[in-house]
Design a protein that fits this description.
The complex is a heterodimer of chains A (643) and B (301). Chain A has 643 residues and is of the alpha+beta class. The chains are: A alpha+beta (643), B alpha/beta (301).
């Protein structure tokens, strides 16, 4: 390493390492990140203050501290997080130990590993682009280390060219390289990361402000027709048990029969975002699905796969269905009440003919009650700590879906009609670019299910009675109008923004679908479409793919001769070619005159022609004045030359 | 002029038997206004070659035998006090001749060597602040014993560069040797040689040589050779720009002797061993072998 260059190279190297480690701030514990920053900063100052750099003993001490921090965080070195942290600490420590050029290379390679470890945490397209970019900078650093003069832009340009050239190879390897599922033990120390989502309980009275999170929960791509928004109920956990405030799931036995379905089948693919629970939100009522999906007693789909990874499922649902008979455990759970309903409630039920008319009449009466009385839909309801249902029904009249659903179910049960709360998502926004539905956290919903004779479980959505637009609007932007009273859809900028978001979302969807979810199964599917069914034939395929490329490159490098623009030379080369056909090859370093003499011995009958051609060529190429006439003569002579 | 050159070569080949190529190269070197270094073991005809050329060209000729105790003043001359006129008078040394044969130049000390080499380069001599021009034309033919022989001071690379060409004579072949042994003494033959190319005509030829055309294609080839020597691991150190110029000058002279008004790659190839051999590997006398990789690898276009 040339001493006058190290400063620039070090700045370049440290900057690229800074860029690489920066996004890890989200993934690694702050203590580790802080420790790395300390080492990094120390080294950075050390560029100018050589004496401040630590000696061997201090580095040893720092290494011990690093190990202690690691052990404190992970109780060992196994697992994904611990491994990543180890690499980051090692990188930081190695930075303090740059003595030879070799150390620079080692650091660069370590930095590549740290850069790729980012993909263990985040696989979004933006992150991939970012990592590609910083790898490009790192490559530029490597180029600078090797070049005699540090030219940042030149190095960056070369690195960009190298990266661009390597992309096709990366794509080919991505598609063709055998995919191996990581063994389970490699991940055993991985802590599940908490993610927001629907919970398995509901307590409407204790919420005074329901946030409208735009976080994506899942996407759905329909193979054919798309059901209208008012039928798009994505079924989540069913909450049957209540203590008056809180609603939770109840253990029930399997339903007696399978639901009878009629009408249009809707085929679709669900792409679930990572989540905590193993729930899969299918359109009511899922009928055809495959492993690892199972249908539980509440007609909710669950997966046995890893919910914290993105996953794709194919499901067929029917929106017209009859579930049939109710079993005793279902009945018990669906009529459970925390105690004797209050008189006020009973009075309301009897006033709406809950006790003396058929259930469907009472349902209509109740929905009508919500509609005609002064009930309001709001996302910011008042707190109802005590007796939330009564407070809602008789005092506040303000609530969102959970309030309506829970009050509705409570009143049904008071009238001895089996009912339960179903949570899930409703609607979803159509992404016109990618032609798929996006279901976000803001689409979370709760509705009621009532068991009626001859029909089975029937969905009743009391929120629809009070806030029609909540259910029927196709686009969530319009839905927000209901929340905030701002007609956002009419603002051009907003439309433009929405389109951009849809476009991005579509790109992102395809990224996940085709890149992230490309596992060994999709690989073998993809390859079998080319007639490649096993690893062996795939290797043959790869050889068949790579061999011609290498052969072409070899040919190019071996036989590529400097292109000549000289017309005279072109014609003379034609003459040489004619002779070469008869085994008279001109050597690389052989002058034309010598060649002519040599050829004349072999072809005595052509002496005059060869002499003339050689003389003309020498005159045209090396002579003082070249006449157009001579050129023409050479052309005709070579043209008519026959061996 | 061409005729005179032809006759000159013929006459020279009568004396120096079986070495037409070396004779031709030696003449080429003179036509290109270069100095010649002949490196070989004693007794193969180095001195005879120089003497013959001097005779045929009608140049006044002086031989300086270099020994280990020769001084610069013995070569370039010195100022001697003239008692009659009470002043110092310059007595020119043997270097003030049109053709100087520096025999066994590597026997002398570097100090004496450099005195001659400076005169060669400057074509003038400065003694005690006064400059004396050397006669025109001025040639130095130096002979050198192979440096592995005892009592030699091999010329350093920087001084070897002053010689346009280095040639080796080598033993004569069987037939030539027989002729040599059975014929008259070379010395007496040499004395009786007529002048074939008088100095005025020689200067005209030298002028004509500079007019030989060098095309861009030839320059490409010349540069390809130079860059090959600089990049190839074969050579410790590549050809200098001065070597490049020397190569072109020699090629032009060769083309002229071949009766052409434009130099072609073959001319460069013909003189390459003589021009580049001592510049690429000083200690090695196998010039042809030294440049063989160049001839084989550098493409002619």
């Amino acid at each position: 390493m040339k001493p006058e260059l190290d400063k620039n190279i070090l700045i370049f190297l440290l900057s690229s390492i800074g860029l690489i480690v920066l996004p890890h701030v989200y993934n690694i514990p702050l203590t580790i990140f802080g420790f790395f920053c300390l080492l990094f900063g120390w080294r950075f100052i050390g560029i100018w203050k050589q004496n401040w750099l630590p000696g061997k003993l201090v580095i040893l001490l720092l290494a011990v501290i690093g190990i202690a921090l690691l052990y404190n965080q992970h109780q060992g070195l196994f697992g994904l997080d611990a491994g990543t942290n180890l690499f980051i600490i090692a990188l930081g420590l190695k930075l303090l130990e740059i003595k030879k050029e070799r150390d620079l290379y080692l650091i660069s390679y370590l930095a590549f590993i740290v850069a790729s470890s980012q993909f263990l945490y985040e696989q979004s397209m933006l992150m991939a682009a970012y990592i590609l970019l910083v790898c490009c900078v790192l490559l530029a650093t490597l180029i600078s280390i090797n070049s005699s003069k540090v030219q940042i832009f030149g190095a960056l340009k070369t690195a960009a060219i190298i990266t661009a050239q390597s992309l096709p190879i990366a794509v080919a390897l991505f598609i063709l390289f055998p995919r191996i599922e990581a063994p389970r033990w490699m991940l055993f120390n991985e802590q599940p990361h908490a993610r927001t989502g629907l919970s398995d309980s509901m307590e409407p009275g204790s919420i005074s402000d329901l946030g409208v999170s735009e976080e994506l929960v899942f996407r759905v791509k329909f193979a054919g027709a798309i059901p209208p928004s008012r039928q798009r109920y994505w079924r989540g956990p069913v909450l049957s048990y209540t203590d008056g405030k809180r609603w939770t799931q109840a253990a029930v036995q399997k339903p007696l029969g399978k639901p009878v379905v009629t009408g249009t089948p809707y085929q679709y693919t669900i792409l679930m975002e990572p989540q905590d629970k193993n729930w899969v939100f299918a359109l009511d009522m899922p009928q055809e699905f495959s492993s690892p999906l199972t249908l539980n007693a509440d007609y909710q789909l669950t997966t046995s796969g890893r919910p914290d990874k993105r996953a794709e499922y194919k499901v067929t649902s029917y929106t017209n269905y009859k579930t049939g008979l109710i079993n005793p455990s279902e009945y018990k759970a669906a009529t459970q009440l925390p105690g004797e309903p209050s008189d006020k409630i009973k009075q309301l039920v009897s006033q709406l003919h809950g006790f003396d008319s058929p259930p469907d009449n009472f349902i209509n009466q109740l929905l009508n009650h919500f509609r005609t009385e002064d009930f309001h839909y709001t996302l910011t309801p008042p707190l109802m700590e005590e007796n939330p249902i009564e407070s809602f029904l008789f005092k506040t009249h303000y609530g969102f879906c959970s309030h309506y659903a829970s009050a509705f179910v409570y009143l049904m049960r008071t009238a001895h009609i089996p009912a339960r709360v179903v949570t899930g998502y409703q609607g979803g926004e159509m992404n016109k670019v990618g032609d798929f539905l996006e279901i976000r956290q803001a689409d979370a919903h709760a509705w009621a299910e009532v068991w009626l004779e001859n029909q089975g479980w029937v969905r009743v959505d009391p929120t629809a009675a009070i806030a029609q637009e909540r259910i029927e609007q196709e686009i969530s932007a319009n839905r927000q109008t209901a929340y905030y009273g701002i007609p956002t859809a009419n603002i051009p900028a907003y439309n433009w923004l929405r389109k951009t978001r849809q476009l991005w979302s579509s790109v992102d969807y395809n990224w996940h679908r085709w890149v992230i979810n490309y596992d060994n199964k999709s690989q073998s599917n993809f390859l079998s479409s080319f007639g490649i069914n096993d690893i062996k034939s795939m290797i043959y395929g790869m050889i068949a793919f790579i061999a011609p490329i290498i052969a072409a490159l070899c040919w190019f490098m071996l036989y590529q001769k400097p292109k000549t623009a000289d017309k005279v030379l072109l014609i003379y080369n034609r003459f040489c070619k004619k002779l070469a056909k008869h085994g008279l090859l001109r050597g690389a370093g052989e002058g034309v005159k010598d060649f002519g003499e040599r050829v004349k011995i072999k072809l005595p009958e052509q002496t005059a022609n060869i002499d003339q051609i050689t003389a003309l060529f020498i005159k045209l190429r090396y002579g003082r004045v070249a006449a157009e006439e001579d050129f023409r003569q050479l052309k005709t002579l070579v043209g008519s030359f026959r061996v | 002029m061409q005729n005179a050159i032809h006759q000159l070569l013929d006459s020279a080949n009568q004396i120096i038997l079986g070495k037409p190529r070396q004779v031709r190269l030696a003449l080429c070197c003179l036509l290109a206004r270069g100095h010649l270094l002949i490196e070989d073991i004693p007794g193969v005809g180095k001195t005879t070659l120089a003497h013959t050329l001097a005779k045929l060209l009608g140049l006044n000729y002086q031989r300086i035998q270099f020994t280990s105790d020769i001084l610069p003043a013995d070569i370039i001359g010195s100022c001697v006090f003239d008692a009659k006129n009470h002043e110092f008078k310059f007595h020119p040394g043997p270097v003030f001749n049109q053709m100087v044969l520096a025999d066994e130049i590597n026997r002398a000390t570097p100090k004496a060597q450099s005195a001659l080499l400076e005169a060669m380069e400057e074509r003038q001599v400065t003694v005690e602040g006064k400059t004396y021009p050397l006669p025109q034309p001025f040639f130095v033919i130096a002979t050198q014993n192979p440096s592995h022989q005892i009592g030699t001071f091999p010329l350093p690379e920087s001084q070897l560069d002053r010689f346009l060409m280095r040639i080796e004579l080598g033993y004569p072949d069987h037939h030539a040797e027989r002729q040599l042994l059975s014929g008259q003494s070379r010395h007496s033959l040499c004395e009786s040689l007529p002048v074939q190319l008088p100095p005025e005509q020689l200067q005209d030829i030298q002028q004509a040589v500079t007019q030989v055309h060098v095309s861009a294609a030839l320059l490409d080839y010349c540069q390809a050779i130079i860059s090959f020597t600089r990049n190839s691991p074969e050579y410790h150190c590549g050809l200098s720009p001065r070597a490049g110029l020397a190569l072109l000058t020699a090629a032009k002279a060769w083309a002229f002797m071949d009766q052409r008004d434009a130099a072609i790659p073959e001319d460069i190839q013909a003189v390459l061993a003589a021009v580049a051999g001592h510049r690429l590997r000083a200690g090695n006398t196998q010039s042809e072998a030294i440049v063989a990789p160049i001839l084989a690898n550098v493409a002619v276009h």
